[in-house]
């Protein structure tokens, strides 16, 4: 029996999945073009506490992180547009892995803030399960 009438073919679920892609794309663009702001606002790491050469390295790594998120966001949007719901479900499962690992990295580096990333895991699971056909 479909959960709340939502099946793997539900346009609403596919559009919510696309929302995850838009979110990743936005985060990625911020990481590429505003690395210092992303480091301080999203990751909670103060660059003023490290030497200038280290700041340059950290900003470059943030731009790599941004590129990863842009690629993930575009992949989600492309799968939403050109593929089936189950493929979208599996791509969103990969996003769960990204959010989980980002949370552990932030916990290790800043001593907190992991839940800024982990809060997306139950939401993504809630979208993935119907997309994968568990409630068809």
Total of helices = 6
Largest sheet: none
Beta strand count = 0
- Count of domains: 1
Helix content: over 70%
**Cα Rg:** 17 Å
Mean pLDDT, all residues: 92
Which shape, going by the Cα principal axes? Answer: elongated
Low-confidence stretches: none
End-to-end distance, in Å? 6 Å
Order of helices and strands: HHHHHH
What class would the helix/strand composition place it in?
Answer: mainly alpha
Strand portion, in percent?
Answer: under 5%
Keywords: Membrane, Transmembrane, Transmembrane helix
InterPro entries: DUF4267 (IPR025363)
Protein name: Major facilitator superfamily (MFS) profile domain-containing protein
Transmembrane segments: 12-34, 117-135
In short:
The chain has helices spanning 11-33, 35-42, 52-82, 85-110, 115-118, 120-131.
Protein architecture, described:
With 136 residues, this protein is mainly α. The protein has one domain (11-131). The protein is 76% helix and 0% strand. The chain has six helices and no strands. α1 packs antiparallel against α6 (120-131) and α4 packs antiparallel against α6. The longest helix has 31 residues, at 52-82. The relative contact order is 0.18. The mean pLDDT is 92.
